[in-house]
Amino acid sequence: MAVRFDVITLFPELFAPFQTVGVTRRAFESRAVDVHLWPLRDHAEGVYRRVDDRPFGGGPGMVMLVEPLVRALQAIRADQQAAGGERLPVILFSPAGRPLTQSRVQALAQSAGAVLLCGRYEGVDQRFIDAYVDEEISLGDYVLSGGELPALTLMDAVARLQPGVLHDAASHEQDSFSDGLLDCPHYSRPEMLTLPEGQEMGVPSVLMSGHHAHIARWRREQQLAITARRRPELIEAARARGELSKQDEHFLSNLPL
Ligand SMILES: C[S@@+](CC[C@H](N)C(=O)[O-])C[C@H]1O[C@@H](n2cnc3c(N)ncnc32)[C@H](O)[C@@H]1O
Fold first, then answer.
1. What is the pLDDT of residues 175-223, one digit of tens each?
2. Where on the phi/psi map is residue 23: left (φ > 0), alpha (ψ -120 to 50), or beta?
3. Which is the catalytic residue, given 6, 160, 219, 248?
4. Which residues contact 238 (CB under 8 A, 6 or more apart)?
5. Average pLDDT of 156-162?
6. Tens digit of pLDDT for each residue in 166-186?
7. Active site residue 175
8. How many CA atoms lie within 13 Å of 87's alpha carbon, on the beta-carbon side?
9. What is the pLDDT of residue 169?
10. Ordered domains of the chain (ranges, CATH)
11. Pairing between strand 135-138 and 193-194?
12. Whose CA is nearest to atom 3 of ligand 1?
């Protein structure tokens, strides 16, 4: 089943190049991830096709107007219905939203999709949010100029989970967060690297041993060590979910922090 994204944006031109490169291109070209762009200005009225105005109460910046957004959403609903699809939830990108996580991405990748609203200016008139937005998603504790990069980020993360997008299906299963932990380090050729400064750098010998069980254990321990040092809260969460084995706990209890 395809995942449909209806993207409301003031800058549709930002999306096209992204859909033609890299491993995710296959997901977009095959319409496994079916992107529909809805330029907000097409739904604005008047000579100037205004989509923003000054905030009531004063203050700097502009606010995205409700009416063009409602018209855009009505057009999307009509199109979804004509396509025989279901009514998709509306996601607004906002620094005040819940931080995006891999588990949310996984759920969206298995869903019918969503309407993605890319904010600009100071943000969206709260009445549109109250009436129509189902979920607010943040990319992190910093402020971007618009919701287009968050929308592209979300669609990229969803696209790479579609069957057949990655050459090796196991690849995303070992990515950071898929099992609740950060990823282990990766190495490739040459086995012995000489830097221009003369320093020689080898590869952990276990990776050259051909012993699959030892390699798997080494990778697991690297994941545990990196996660414990950088994101200890993820270790706590994995523990609370019962995902740490006795062997994992023994390794962690001997880990110098
Ligand atoms: C300049 S920002 C508005 C910031 C808003 N006044 C605030 O302080 O929260 C314009 C738009 O960029 C998007 N945006 C900015 N930072 C974001 C973030 N960290 N996560 C998700 N969207 C973000 C939102 O859609 C937002 O409406």
1. 778 789 999 999 999 999 999 999 999 999 999 999 999 999 999 999 9
2. alpha
3. 160
4. 179, 180, 181, 227, 244
5. 96
6. 767 677 777 778 789 999 999
7. yes
8. 6
9. 67
10. 3-159 (3.40.1280.10), 176-253 (1.10.1270.20)
11. unpaired
12. 122
* pLDDT > 70: percent of the chain: 98
% of the chain beyond a pLDDT of 90: 92
- Give the residues across from 136 on adjacent strands: 92
At residue 120, the pLDDT reads 98
Pocket test of ligand 1: the residue of 94, 125, 141, 149 to mutate, having most ligand atoms within 8 Å of its CB, is 94
User: Could you tell me the two tokens for 67?
Assistant: 């009416």
Cut 0.90: pTM above it = yes
**SS3 call for 148:** helix
Cα-to-centroid distance, 84 and ligand 1 (Å): 33
* Residues 91, 92, 95, 96, CA torsion sign: negative
Residue nearest to atom 6 of ligand 1 (CA): 122
CA 232, 235, 236, 237 torsion-angle sign: positive
Residue of 39, 55, 89, 95 marked active site: 95
State the pLDDT confidence band at 162, using cuts at 50, 70 and 90. very high
Beta bridge partner(s), residue 63: 53
Alpha helices in the chain (DSSP H): 25-29, 66-82, 102-109, 126-132, 148-159, 212-230, 232-240, 246-253
72 CB burial (10 A radius; 0-12, 13-18, 19+): buried
